[in-house]
Amino acid sequence: MAKGRIRRKLRKSHLYTFCLYPGAAGKCGQPVGGPGFSRTVHCNEPQMHSQKPFKYRANDISTTKYSFLSFLPKALYEQFNRVANLYFLGCAIASLTPLSPFSAVSMIAPLAFVVGLSMAKEALEDWRRFMQDMEVNSRKVKVHAGEAFDKKAWQNVRVGDVVRVEKDQFFPSDLLLLSSNNEDGICYVETMNLDGETNLKPKRALEVTLDLDEDEDFKNFKGIIKCEDPNPSLYTFVGNFEYNGQVYAIDPSQILLRDSKLRNTAFVYGIVIFTGHDSKVMQNSTKSPSKRSRIERKMDYIIYVLFSVLLVISLISSFGFAVEIKYSMPGWWFMRPQEADEYYNPREPVTSGISHMVTALMLYGYLIPISLYVSIEVVKVLQATFINQDILMYDEETGIPAQARTSNLNEELGQVDTILSDKTGTLTCNQMDFLKCSIAGTAYGSSSSDVELAAEQQMANDPVNKVELEAVVSSLSEKGHKSSIKGFNFEDSRLMNGNCLKEPKQEDIMLFFRILAVCHTAIPELNEETGSYTYEAESPDEGAFLVAAREFGFEFFQRTQSSVTVREKYTASGNPIDREYKILNVLEFTSKRKRMTVIVRDEDGQILLMCKGADRLVSLLYLDLISIIFDRLSKDGRFYQEDTTRHLNEYGEAGLRTLALAYKKLEESEYSAWNTEFQKAKTSIGADRDIMLEKAAEMMERDLILIGATAVEDKLQKGVPKCIDKLAQAGLKLWVLTGDKMETAINIGYACSLLRQGMKQICIQATDSDVKEEVKVDILKQINNGSQTIREEKDPYASFALIIDGKTLVYALEDDMKHRFLDLGVRCASVICCRVSPKQKALVTRLVKQGTGKTTLAIGDGANDVGMIQEADIGVGISGVEGMQAVMASDFSVSQFRFLERLLVVHGHWCYKRIAQMICYFFYKNIAFGLTLFYFEAFTGFSGQSVYDDWYMLLFNVVLTSLPVISLGVLEQDVSSEVCLEFPAIYQQGPRNLFFDWYRILGWMGNGLLASLIIFFLNIVIFYNQAFCIGGQTADMTALGTTMFTCIIWSLNIQIVLTMSHFTWIQHATIWGSIVTWYLFLAVYGALSPDISRDAYQILVEALAPAPIYWTTTLLVAVTCNLPYMAHIAYQRCLKPMDHHIIQEIKYYRKDVEDQHMWKREQLKARQKTKIGFTARVEAKIRQLRSKMHKKQ
């Protein structure tokens, strides 16, 4: 209890004032008990919440789609929600009636197999989700029970339980923090799973519960919490805590949310408030929008076309049957027309025709490929496995591979037209390096940023036409000084190693570094190996500032409840000095405030206000330009403003992120008066509390003195320029959507080669007018002028870039203007949207997707990118340092932006072409097979008789033709991955939809129609009047049907051989194995008892195999069926070759090895004409040099 006694002596701290408890006891005016605020929690009495009127939810969670009871009905509903499956279900039911042309088993078995396989896949995926849920629900946590804390599974934790959570454990539910191992009750929480932020957030217990610091203290602990009902707001909490006859207000700083993690704290105690699906993280869980690929949506239309064909030929068959029944059947004595039933009644031909319609719909049902859906699902899962296993998309530094989080959109990767990308963490690393600073009007720092290095490369006078472009682009990211200190890339001897003491403005420089070392909320951690301190900071910028302060000789090394201590290494005396600063208040940095302030008392008793904040901000609310720090300066505090502003502009042009630093000295009376008002605001209850706190902060944060500014670099990710260059050559457009200011975004654009010298920039910016209509008219005028400028441009090499900020987007995205804005954006080579909010990112993505009607891909790494990732046709999340929210919302994830090149140009191209060819082949084979049934029925007077045995029909889709088409969908490669990257223009086959347009689809259907005619009529002509066996017997229906089916199996498999460009042993095994399987089946089936095999008894061994006509017919039909396709391919390759045809021939004749000049020439041809990327920059430079040479001549 020693710690408890110490804690009782602690006074209330003013630390973390914006997120701290209102610690005053007494009655509160909080609206607890009303609508939305009805939850009551009895602390340490969980049994009270298992009965009415409470009955709170259990703590187990379930993210599964099904339960054990709901799986069967829900899964069946999902399967028969597909039109094709519903049709086959009707056929299966009808097969039980006398109208069926097949046995019931031949209709039911394929349907059961296909539906069963799909349901099994659903069950497997849901089982994996269930096991993940069980893993979470089975985690252990210590729960108070009687007199001790025992370990319990999370799922057994109840509302009201007291739990003990230890370091690096996740919180099992939403908790009220009671105490921690720290004497001040502070703990540190990582909320990466909630908001994607890796920075630690401080939480602090109520003062009244600080002494509850040991297990035995909870034996008689009781209290009541009255608070808000479950809701999804992560950043708000309203409630009261009744304890020892007093009422204490609770705010978000005392709430520990489920799935956040305890860090840098040995243990905490907490009371369970919300459990399971009532917790805030589960209240925030949303289902990802359902996305379907364009090919899949188009496939539905093809199914409708085939249904229409099926209906038409069924009507023809029914009409023919009715005619035959009425006019021919009375003369067919063997049909006993006088005893005919309702299905064969010459006196009622209409009724007989209608009943025959059911038979025809079942008989010709093989036009609809029953196994298409399940085959596509199998293929997509295997394709996704290849994406996951691609070693060239594995990041060795992080150990993170690429991941296809859904397999439904594989082929969509090959049809992307526009990429919408975040900047920070996506194009850049989210690693901040302290690079430059401005102190007291003097600029320091000589290191070059990536943008400056890119500018140096751009302005170089080397003969760029002799430079290998790939080598230049690859080396760009590697060029420049690499600091061995993470977060610090500063070079300037004037400030290093204590030389700042020799500078004329020594006092200002020392104060600047002290602000860096004191104005933050970070936590120091001693690295025992190096002896130096590292920092757990709320942002990468803040971490870079502390590392910089440490390297400059101002090392922050200790934080307590109410103080920070800084070791100043370089002093006038020459000895290090530890200076302690008492923290009086911290006004934290928020996205709205864009600044952070600490008020401290130094060792001399002087009260100092230290502030750092954005130098400027566009306000979407007031539609004006706000300077966060400069607008708060006193008249005497602007001495360095002109020089600092100039330096800030230079830093912005270099692509650096900037903050301004200011301070103010406070008198004791001034501070006391303000603090009294601030404490009133802090302890107030109600909706106005935040407004009152903001007003109090505004009162203090004014009349500041500017001291300087910082510039940190958000490093470009490795390989970004090369990736953008390759994507541009593939014909893809890139829009950058960033929250950074315009200057920074523009210069990152230069570094990435989205912008270049000579590119005409169209900057759309709203005016400062207060009249909304005037602003809209001006923006519309700017958009129209931009469009007109592009239309009137005569230079074929001219390129344009559109740059627009979030303030202007407010108007540009309105209904009456958005389509003109989109039209201008589409005409430009690149588009950069600056200062955009997460909602605006999603709105821009929706506009591009719906306005262009083309496939969009959004890529980002942070929680603020989730909206656009879900809105785009394809969402790609980057597994970076900003957490996993973007990844969890995405369809695909990669660890670096550069892997997007391979994901799209290689896997996207392959998957698109594989799926397209696979579906076309599916329709081809089913038309070729299904129409032979129609021809035979017409040939036999529309009798409804099938020419094939029922078992042949059953095995056709499920066994004999399924594996070859799956191997086509999984393993086909028109060109290798290396060639895809060397010839990026091949990718345009996807966006142009060359392999799944109606011309190609109808061509394959026509090929199927032609094959069906050849198969049927050649067999009929050959077998109709000729002896079949050596004994002179003619062929019966079984022999004809079996021969015809053999021709189908051979023809279809030869066709798929001709379709494939790439063979492995797997393709050979599936194709030739299918043919062998057919003959083995015939032999085994024919050997069975005649009761089973019926007319097919010994059909192969005794009837077909000994007959030469069987083998010659098979050969003749198989070759004839494929002659039209071979002629088409020969014509296309000779006269109208596609890109991959040319490359295949070059590779076949080894011209890529023997004739390098030709290979390079073809590579240049296979690049889309682009106006962005490093290649476009070099080509522009070449044109410039040639123009100069021409003028000299």
From TrEMBL:
Give the UniProt family note: Belongs to the cation transport ATPase (P-type) (TC 3.A.3) family. Type IV subfamily.
One GO-annotated biological process of the protein:
phospholipid translocation
Give the UniProt subcellular location, in the record's own words.
Answer: Membrane
Active site as annotated: D422 (4-aspartylphosphate intermediate)
User: From which source organism is this entry?
Assistant: Hibiscus syriacus (Rose of Sharon)
Q: Which UniProt keywords apply?
A: ATP-binding, Isopeptide bond, Magnesium, Membrane, Metal-binding, Nucleotide-binding, Translocase, Transmembrane, Transmembrane helix, Ubl conjugation
Residue span(s) of domain P-type ATPase C-terminal: 887-1137
| Record protein name field | Phospholipid-transporting ATPase
Residues that, per the record, bind ATP: D422, K423, T424, E542, F589, K612, R657, T738, G739, D740, R835, K841, N864, D865
The enzyme's main class, written as a single word, is translocase
What Pfam families does its record include? Answer: Cation_ATPase, PhoLip_ATPase_C, PhoLip_ATPase_N
Membrane topology recorded in Swiss-Prot or TrEMBL: Multi-pass membrane protein
Q: Where are the transmembrane segments?
A: 301-323, 354-374, 922-939, 951-971, 1001-1025, 1037-1058, 1070-1088, 1108-1131
What's the EC number here? 7.6.2.1
User: Could you tell me what reaction this enzyme catalyses?
Assistant: ATP + H2O + phospholipidSide 1 = ADP + phosphate + phospholipidSide 2
Tell me which domain of life the UniProt entry assigns to the organism this sequence originates from.
Eukaryota
Instruction: Name the residues that bind Mg(2+).
Output: D422, T424, D861, D865
Q: Which cofactor does it need?
A: Mg(2+)
CDD domains on file: P-type_ATPase_APLT_Dnf-like
Its GO CC terms?
plasma membrane
Query: P-type ATPase N-terminal domain spans which residues?
Result: 41-108
Q: Which GO terms describe its molecular function?
A: ATP binding; ATP hydrolysis activity; ATPase-coupled intramembrane lipid transporter activity; magnesium ion binding
Report the main location listed first in the record.
membrane
